[in-house]
Amino acid sequence: MLRDTQGVTSHAVLPIEVVPIVARFTGKSTCEEIAREASTELGERVPLDLVTKLATELEDALFVDGPPYRRERARIEREFASAAVREASHAGGAYHGDPIELAEYIDVECLGTRAANGGSPTRAANGGSPTRAANGGSAANGSHATERAEATRARLVGLVAPHIDPWRGARCYGAAYRALAAALPDDAETFVLLGTSHAPMREPFALCRKTFATPLGPMEADFDAIDAIATACDFDPYADQFNHKREHSLEFQAVFLRHLLGKRRARIIPILAGLGAHQQTGESPTRSRSVTRFYDALRKIVDRRSAVVIAGADLAHVGPRFGDPRALDEAERTRLDAVDRDSLARAERVDAEAFWEHVASDLDRRRVCGLGPMYSLLRTIDPSARGEVRHYEQTVDPEEGSIVSHAAVGFYA
Fold first, then answer.
1. What are phi and psi of 182, to 5 degrees?
2. Most distant CA pair in the chain: distance in Å?
3. Which parts of the chain have pLDDT scores under 70?
4. Cut 0.90: pTM above it
5. 21, 174, 175, 246: which could form a disulfide with 7 (CB 3.0–4.6 Å)?
């Protein structure tokens, strides 16, 4: 399956036999060269007509970077740029689109604040038939992850929450947003939302100057704060704004935040943290003047607004789905648990550089997709704050064993 995460087109299902052909559609080879190379790989003749037909059909379906795709993308980008509202693109798929059902699911399955009427199963990741997600606990043995008792505590200044879909991440979302509810300052009206961009970015950060729609009501944008940050940038912070259109890492936080706050006045500052160039090299973002200027501007807003910083961030992605030859066995899952917790311990100390170094050192193996937003949170909150891991979990694909790990971490000052 080819899937367009940015929403220019939808998806295309191809026969597995044509993968050696389509995998060579990189823009570096002619159809004739692809036919020859695929023939060599497969050990049988691949007709040039077949390669040309596939290329033409995929181009017409907007899966090839050619004139049709560029025209349609330009049109959709213009529409998104001019829109005042970022629509809830995953409502009805990754979570309930109906506000009553959504509120019930969050209360019962995630927060556990109301008893379920006879219980309600967790839905599958694709919004299909109900099923129980296969989740591993803190020791990667299927047990529940440790959660400390909820209690009144110091002022919460930051929160790491998962961005896995709420069907599979219900317990972790619940732990994260219970922590926020227990220690949310009464005067907090601005929330900085830092998320992973699952699509490539040209610049290190992408602002979004739009209100986020949710089935439970809008999360209005803090336009003055966004403008102040943009003015301080020495790069275009809107160059990658289109990535916000389909990105779920911030949308899910907006949904939970809106539910938790009810009708309380609140505004958000939506930011996608790419830091792609630094993640590729492993070099600390502190070496970048542009990144430092951005963090300086963001910290001023956080201090001035007494804002709460929320990072929508998952941890490891391992197993066949992510390119590994096989699923992890029990011993390997236990080791993954330990390495993830080593990273989280550095985050708890609000040691941004130690966290970056630890995660970047095995980024090609653990594939921690939340490195950018979590590092950005640590660079932005009060450095005297201290974190507390409220929940850690390994969500395991029940069919082929791939794992996405994630955690809930509260930061208190």
1. -75, -25
2. 70
3. 115-153
4. no
5. 246
